[in-house]
Amino acid sequence: MSLQKNVLALIILVTFAWLSFMAITYALSFTLFQAIENIDIDAFLGTLRVVIGVTVFVVWVYGLYLLTKIWLYKILLKTP
Fold it and tell me: What is this structure's pTM?
């Protein structure tokens, strides 16, 4: 039973990671694609959009790292 519980927990973690990746990718498309496609906009605004996009991505990666660390060490490794 413990193996099934751990496999289910890992499936939930991977599903959450992929869903959050899709959400972040969708959010980044609004900032980065507009900065790339609109050549006539202000250079500062384009640079700011790219910086915001990269910052959002880095925060997502760090948050996913913390979630995985907490999930794997505190939930999956605890003994019944």
Answer: 0.64
